[in-house]
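Thread: quick sanity check before group meeting

JM: Hey all, I'm pulling together slides for Thursday and realized we never actually wrote out the predicted structure for the chain we discussed last week. Dropping the sequence here so it's in one place. If anyone has concerns about the input, flag it before I start.
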Amino acid sequence: MDTTTGTGITTTRTTIPMAERVPDALVLLAWLSPGYPVGAYAYSHGLEWAVEAGDVRDEASLRDWLADVLEHGAGRSDAILAAHAHDAASVGDAEALVAVNDLALALSPSRELHLETSQQGRSFLDATRAAWDVPRLAELGSHLDGPVAYPVAVGAAAGAHGLDRGTVLAAYLAAFLQNLVSASLRLAPVGQTAGTRVVAALMPRAASLARAIQGIPLDEAGTATVRLDLGSFRHETQYTRIFRS
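JM (edit): ok, ran it. Output follows.
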C-alpha cells in the first residue's frame, strides 16, 4: 500500500501484484517480446555458423535444424531449467534456485553460448526487477547477484509472480524459435514467408515439448547437439559475422 501526500491532500493506493492484474499471456508477451531489453537480436545460437557451413541453406534445412535444437538441444534443456527455476521461485527456495542457475551456467558448452545465456539472463532479471518487481522476486534476486542463465531468470520471475508454469514454458519455447527464425532472415537463407511457415510448422512441437518436460528431473537437463556445440567454437573465429554467437 502506497501513501502519497501533496498540497495537503493524502491519497492511499493499494499496490496490486502485477500477475493479479494482467493475464499471464499478456505478461509473457511483454517479457518475451523482441522489444524487451535483453539483447536477443545479437545472438544466433550457432545458426550463423550453420549457414556458413551449409547446414542451413533453405527453408527445409532451417526447419530441420531448428527442430533438432528445440527437441535435442537448448530448447528442451532450457525448458527443464526454467521449469525447476519456476518451482523454486514459487515457494521462495533461494538455495534451490541458485543450484539450478549454477547447473544452467555450467551446461553452456562454449564461451559464446555462455555469454548468450548469461548476458540475456542478467539483463532480463535486472529489467524485470526494475519494472515488474514484487517482494518475492526482490528477495530471490538478491541471491542471484552474478551471472544468471536466461531460462533461470525467466522461470524465476514467472514463479515469483505466480504465472502458470505450462504457459511460461510454451511461451519461452515459442519465443526461442521466433528469435532464431528472425536471425535466419538476417542471414538470408530464407525469406519472410518461408520463415513464417517454419514458425508455424514448429509451434505444435514447442507446445508438445512444454507439456512433456513438466515433471522431468533436473538432472535430465543437457543437450545432444554436438555439431552445433562445435560450430559455436568455430564461430568465435569465423571471418565474417554479425552475431555474437
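AS: nice. Strands lie at 2-6, 9-13. Residues 165-187 form the longest helix (23 residues).
JM: adding both to the slides.
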